[in-house]
Amino acid sequence: MSHSLANEQAPQQNDKREIFGWGMYDWANSAFSTTVGTVFLGPYLASLARDAAKLEFLVKNGFEWTEKIAAQYPLTASLGGLQVAPDSFLPYCVSFSVGLQVLFLPILGAIADYSHMRKQMMQVFATVGALATIGLFVVTGDLWWLGGLLYILANLAFGAAMVFYNSYLPDIASEEKRDSVSSYGWAMGYLGGGLLLLLNLAFYQFRETLGVPTDLAVRINLASAGLWWMGFSFITWSRLRSRRAARPLPAGENYVSIGFKQLAQTLREVKHFPETLKYLLAYFLYNDGIQTVIAVSATFAAAPLINGGLEVDQGTLTIVILMIQFVAFGGALIWGRLAGKIGAKESIIVSLIIWAGVVIYAYGGMYGDSRVTQFYILGFFIAMVMGGSQAISRSLFAQMIPIGKEAEFYSFYEISERGTSWVGPLLFGLMNQVFGSLRPALLSLIFFFVAGLIILPFVNVKKAIADVKAYDIEKKA
């Protein structure tokens, strides 16, 4: 039954209805990336942690903490016996959540490939992530730590669902269509995430007219991302087709034990794909930098000037991020065309050069009264390369993985996908805590782009594709 179903459905690629349904999941879950991860949660949790830290300081020392005594008494909040800088709290949470993904995603990918239950597993984790996001509504006052806990759960579920989502790309699009289909998915994500952000911005800007307190407006916006994520996912579930019938378990086995065995087998076979591994290493490095820039941009913009930030108000910040979303919609499509003209790997290299320039300028520029205008300009350049560099990276990777192991390989890929970088946020948080300024923390991210630029040119894409085809032929023989 499983074999006949696979034979019947495998040729059904480039179906516009299914591709639209697949792209709508990007539309749905991008609300989490934009409204929660990029705009509202970082500054909100930092503000709550900062208030808690000031209260702790007052109780401990008998006088209030002020910016004038910042050099003598760095402001930190107590969390389980650890002292955490308020602006470092969310980056630490991002890093921890991805540490969990490193442990769980490869096993989940192996289970999905063995069981042929990618769609069902994608539904489960998308639902868990959406519910955790809705739960952010209750985070206020002394519950700032709960915001980090819910984010860790939501981001873990986000990454897990993305493993199965990405693994559908080789199934729904033929080889020559994958760059454009991948770019289409990213473009849909920016459009959907941007539309909700526009609605959230309007609500936030008119909160006083509506008689809604600022903290309540932020919490409503955070919860709306979970509702958006869950609601629009139903379009995906109705159109995305399972490629194979669910496989029954052998006697005495369960999906966890099978998952470990499947993963062990894959790890033994990776020697057949040296160029794929080389590409993954480059991707881990440069995309860790990309994701960290995206994750900390709102924190950097909203942080006080004394901490190396831009001290941009929430309304202005949201407008800039909103502009980035809609420019990125066009940028993703443009980069898809660029890849068709100069090659996927070459277009990624161009984008990394621009990313490196962005980090250097963020470190050395944007001072004085013109810093908001400069932030807009910087945001435009980020938008032009943000979606394109990631969309082409995803479709290029799809050419380098064997049939039947898509979810397993994408589980490794997802470790450094959207919102799931870990080394970058950890380095950023530590640098900020050591230097007491976000500027050196930003500059430290240049390492990831330079490292990616060093390794990526040495990836032989043609050999990687040939290795996969040779493996598939050998497997069928």
Describe the structure.
There is one protein chain. The chain is mainly alpha-helical and 477 residues long. The protein has a single domain, classed as MFS general substrate transporter like domains (Growth Hormone, Chain: A), CATH 1.20.1250. It contains 18 helices and two strands. Strands 1-2 form a two-stranded antiparallel sheet. A hairpin with a 2-residue loop joins strand 1 and strand 2. Helix 3 runs parallel beside helix 5 and helix 7 packs antiparallel against helix 8. The longest helix has 46 residues. It is globular. The N terminus is likely disordered.
Quickly describe the structure.
The chain is mainly α. It contains 18 helices and 2 strands. It has a single domain, classed as Up-down Bundle (Growth Hormone, Chain: A).
One letter per element, helices H and strands E, the order comes to HHEEHHHHHHHHHHHHHHHH
Broad structural category: mainly alpha
Number of domains: 1
Cα radius of gyration in angstroms: 22 Å
Distance between the termini: 21 Å
Question: Average pLDDT across residues?
Answer: 85
Uncertain ranges: 1-9
Oligomer: single chain
Q: What is the CATH C level class, in words?
A: Mainly Alpha
Annotated CATH topology: Growth Hormone, Chain: A
> Main beta sheet: strand number and arrangement?
2 strands, antiparallel
- Helicity, as a percent range: over 70%
| Shape descriptor | globular
Q: In what order do the strands lie side by side in the largest sheet?
A: 1-2
CATH superfamily: MFS general substrate transporter like domains
